[in-house]
Amino acid sequence: MTLTETHPRGAAAPGPDGPDGSGAQAVVTGIGVAAPNGLGTRAWWRATLAGESGIGPLTRFDGERYPATLAGEVPGFDPAAHVPSRLLPQTDHMTRLAFAAAREALDDAGVDAAALPEYGAGVVTAASAGGFAFGQRELEALWSRGGAHVSAYQSFAWFYAVNTGQISIRHGLRGPSGVLVTEQTGGLDALAQARRQLRKGIGVLVTGGVDSSLCPWGWAAHLADGRLSTRRDPATAYLPFSADANGHVVGEGGALLVLEDAAAARARGAEVYGRVSGYAATFDPAPGTGGAPRLRDAAALALADAGLAPGDVDVVFADAAGVRADDVAEARALAELFGPRGVPVTAPKTMTGRLAAGGGALDVAAALLALRDQVVPPTVHVAAPAEDCPLDLVTTARPLPLRTALVLARGRGGFNAATVLRAPAG
Amino acid sequence: MPEMSIHDLTTLLRECAGEDESVNLEGDVLDTPFADLGYDSLAVLQTTGRIERDFELTLDEDAVAEAETPREYLAVVNHQLTDRSNA
Hints:
The complex is a heterodimer of chains A (426) and B (87).
Chain A: H1 3-6, E1 26-35, E2 38-39, H2 41-49, E3 55-57, E4 70-72, H3 79-82, H4 93-109, E5 121-126, H5 132-145, H6 154-157, H7 162-171, E6 178-180, H8 186-199, E7 204-211, H9 216-225, E8 253-261, H10 262-267, E9 274-283, H11 295-306, E10 315-317, H12 324-338, E11 344-346, H13 357-373, E12 375-376, E13 392-393, E14 398-399, E15 404-411, E16 415-422
Parallel strand pairs in A: 5-6, 5-7, 10-11, 10-15, 11-13
Antiparallel strand pairs in A: 1-2, 1-8, 1-9, 3-4, 7-8, 9-16, 12-14, 15-16
Chain B: H1 6-17, H2 41-55, H3 61-66, H4 70-86
Region (Disordered) (chain A): 1-24
GO biological process, one term (chain A): fatty acid biosynthetic process
Domain Ketosynthase family 3 (KS3) (chain A): 23-423
């Protein structure tokens, strides 16, 4: 069965991608990646399909002093190779990673930023804590040596909007821009905000998220969250949907994407990875009020936004909390929507750890390449889902005919988001 | 107290704020505006903080802000260095 037979999506179909009547249809034409299991889209995707994990002992600082010692660190990153000298003294590690991903995405899309109208392109990224490591260093300087020793660049290098601003300045993308702070849903929420700007007539958006907080200050915050795995074996630390789940591992990195209107992309002959066809966000009821979590509602609303039914979805990229109660809740939401084991589900973040604002964006990149290559990347380290998680969990790369992918994310504090991606039209 | 030279200043600028790839700081840059050298006001502020620490000076904030070129900036710094050694 092909989706084309069940749900004709030809040119005659009303445009679910442009319910505001603008007719704009958001497509992704460029991908840039910085991930713990690969720097650059090609290296990361190869490792992801091969099931190669980037989780290991912390090297950025001495993790042995903390209960949790594992993380996903982006390998082989040489800042000087990706960041101009002028910008090195004023950038945190996560901004440097974002520079690399933004450049890769723009190059991949073949977009010449300098040739665009002055306000015709914008930047919308997601972030969590901004440049945490930079901020820690300057706070240390403040308390140990005094205010005269604090960098003037602390004024913005720590700030959660800094990646958007730096990318905007470096590439001359002066159109509507912004930042979203919704923890792990940020990557999806940013993509949706970029799509809104596209519908308002902005021609090109750089969007997604790249995050890092691998410093003692950031680690203290992650530990306080209470959901970090304290296991020391990278193969057993982060086991979402497993009966043996024990919390999650934190990683750094993410993805940035170039979003354009389909017609404009076609007109300039750009290669299209896929369409951003649907999106929705919901918020959980306050704890203790008895309401049910609303991840399923986000997924259902995103499908409605795309004009699709659950049966149209070929693969789900799960949030994959790695915390038993949250895993069971997500599995239940998926079973209610798709039926028990009703759709292939995967969590390539088992190879990277949870990337905060970068997580949803990297999952979108993975979903788009899955659609391109017609293969579902694996969930690693999980032998089989728990009995109370009735999922068709993909644990080795699985070739499949793929037209539609659903990406789910949950952010600490009650955020839920869902994004529907479809293979290029035609 | 020796005066600060253009070489001292460009070395500190480079350390504090990096170096624009299109600019040759070894060339004759005494009268080139900081903006043309790729240094914005924050870059100059960062470098000023470093000079104040290294030389144990407190530079005249307004005079530093008005200095648009390395020559004007060095005049402010060296004026205060001279004042101090004469005090």
